[in-house]
Give the backbone structure.
Amino acid sequence: MTDLKVRRLRFDFADSVPIVWQPDNPVFSHAVNLASFIAICFEKMIVDAVQEAKPHFADPEVASEANAFIRQEAQHANAHRQHINALIRQYPGLQEVLDTMMASYDHMTKTKSLDYRLAYIADLEATFTPSFKFLLDNERIMFRPGDDRVASLLLWHMVEEVEHRSSALNIYNAVVGKRIHRLRVLPSVIRHLMANLVPAYVNGVNLH
């Protein structure tokens, strides 16, 4: 059985939240905002792909971990939606950014094979632990000067991403198991992020 815990945290975004929530570091503020937009859409794709993969799980331990993994990811998406909804209330044009990113991932779900999507998820999740460890090690500089709500949301999310750091790879190996396929998918993961999601956010902020 998995050791992953599903935690239902709630963050109060009823009041407005600044788009530059970390005034000492505007670039980092926008990077975190972008991550919140992506999280909502990417984690929906994760849930859809893992649900589709369930009939292929032969090992009950993999099935148990997969279930906890997607339940954690669903909680992350819900929390990030609170953050993004607060931004959209102030800047309604940002709804187009969310819609564009969601459409991009929905298109992937409809047009890409399950093998591809599981490889995409495993590849992207593999980047999180080293990246997030750097941020967690430097949270006093990166997060404390900023809005407590956004900082707390990101710190909680990063800790849980480290906690389930092997889940996506375990699922991929159980269903696909081809290391070379996962490596071949990696360049398209980077292209998808850089050609679709990053420009969508940058253009949305510039316009609104």
Notes: The CA atoms of residues 53 and 175 lie 7 Å apart. The two ends are 47 Å apart (CA to CA). The longest helix spans residues 60-90. The chain has a mean pLDDT of 93.
